[in-house]
Design a protein that fits this description.
20 strands, alpha+beta, four-stranded antiparallel β-sheet, four-stranded mixed β-sheet
Amino acid sequence: MKLAIASDQPATTALLREIAHLCAAHGAQWHPQLQVEVIEGAMRLLAPPETTGALISLPTELLLPIEAAQWSGSADALQLLQPPPAATAVQRELLQLHVELYNATGKLPWWSSQHPARLVAASAHVAAALAPLKPGHGHKLERSAAEGFLATRSFGWKPSPDQGDRGPVLMPLIDLLNHHHKGAPFAISDGAMRIKAAQAGGCECFAHYGHRRDVLDLALHYGHCDHSTPFAHSAPLEITVEGVGTIRVEHQGQRAPLHPFDPPHVTLEADGLRISHLCCHLEHPARVRTMLRLALQGSLKRRGHTEQVAARLAEQGLQAVAAANISLLDQLRHATEASQHPGAAILAAATQRQGAIISAVI
């Protein structure tokens, strides 16, 4: 199979052709009208509008394990010192080609100097403002630049159910798909990773990178402000509202909720209300408002308030939850806007988008 490539970089074109040739020689298939576009280092996959059906099928033996690979400590260019011992010959060849592709498109220098997560690592002020919103972010183990960058490109996979934990793998060709909320999920069946065509009103094809990351999560992990994501998680909160009592939101929720509605666990307490998590979703705005209002009204009635008073106080509780989130997001936005770091604009935009979702829903 041949892959159409439109690139402003001859070296990138040559690398992509070699990757495609090697993948096709080992059983990979893709839509006959699929095209790779590369402009100033930004790579994406295109197909005619309204393309449907299978987009790429990649045999699992072409997934590239990176867990045991050894990398140099350079923040300027990827350098593979030692491939994973268990990698096959074709996996080692493809991995080296991907290293060269990422270097040709300047991926590691961008991650090292412009990624919003590097701003958080470099600025105690920004990190302190982020901590109440995403308390788990600062607990990640320190990694080399290569490992940190590759974590944004890899997929967790294990060849067999009894193999233990999933290991990170790179996905040739599929790696070129950008994320969109309505993108296609990755799926492995019959010995191949398969992804269907999913577009958003244009020619670009998208994947959904998985997990329940909101706009701020996506900016911190992948380094872009995603305007397609329609939901935002509440920060963990403990606020006291006059007449209502204490409202506690414990955490962000599961990365992969068991139920599509992602219902929180609600506990009525003597002094107020405890909620496991809150997710504000633009496509289902009434869901979180109704749940929170009913929980607050139940708590207030239990303490002797009439239905009318409970309804009024419950609305105040709703607004207090929104205001507490907006206040934390404003603090983060002000901290990022005061920074000269190249990643500040992305993080500020994601923070503003996060606040707009919460304001619109609650």
